[in-house]
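Archive maintenance. Older records in this collection stored only the sequence; we are now back-filling the structure field for every entry so that each record is complete. The fields below show one back-filled record exactly as it appears after the update. Entries are processed alphabetically, and Carbon-nitrogen family hydrolase is next in the queue.

ARCHIVE ENTRY
Title: Carbon-nitrogen family hydrolase
Organism field: Streptomyces polygonati
Length field: 273
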Amino acid sequence: MRATLVQIDVDPEETVGDRRERVAALVRAQSGADLVVLPELWPVGAFAADSFASRAEPVDGGPTAAAMSDAARAAGVWLHAGSIVERDPAGPLYNTSLLFAPDGGLRAVYRKIHRFGFDQGEAVLMAAGDRVVTAGLPDAVLGLATCYDLRFPELFRLLVDAGAQVIVLPAGWPARRLAHWRILVQARAVESQAYVLACGTAGTHAGIEQAGHSMVVDPWGEVLAEAGPGEQLLTVDLDPARVTSTRVDFPVLRDRVLGLPEPSPGAAPLPGS
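Back-filled structure field:
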């Protein structure tokens, strides 16, 4: 299974329309891949909160969804189109990831569950998703997560329980927390015993320098490929059978203890203390 991560430079001087056309051309050029992955909120910029409402678009019939559907069909690839600012017909905004099949059909939609911002930005402007989403491809089951979700391992456990073998994580991660990015991407792969495809943005938008450094990490936690800080493509061949063999050879997931008792209000004193 050949995967290509497209680390896009979100340049504030480039119009959304121009970027959409440029990214569609990049996707169309990946016809040798099985799966292509784009970053989080690449049409707008993950930190451009002031533009979220004005640049929101629907999943059905929106310009980005239409362009990415056409690009997936032209390349004959599965396309995780990163995420868009979705305006739901009922009113709320969502940070929404879209997965297209090689025929251009929309096969999965994931609305980001954990919103970043600590009472500002995305955390207050967007509603939270409420569904754990996986999608079956011919070669593997994908689990979908987005950026800040990376800090919440319980979501990844649920994805594993739902059968995920490859976890796709588009992101707009700031450069000042690059060390956290690297540690957390590897940690989620190790604990899930799954491939993690983490695709970030490059450049600086809304005054926030982006980390770049998209990564592909295997089920043992080995970094198979890592981008630099600028716009770049990473292409890696994945072996879904390695997920199964890792889980059989080192069956840590088998030893999970579920239904732990609720924590007591205070810790019991140690004997002799």
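Update note: The first strand starts at residue 2 and ends at 7. Residues 28 and 71 are 5 Å apart (CA to CA).
Entry marked complete.
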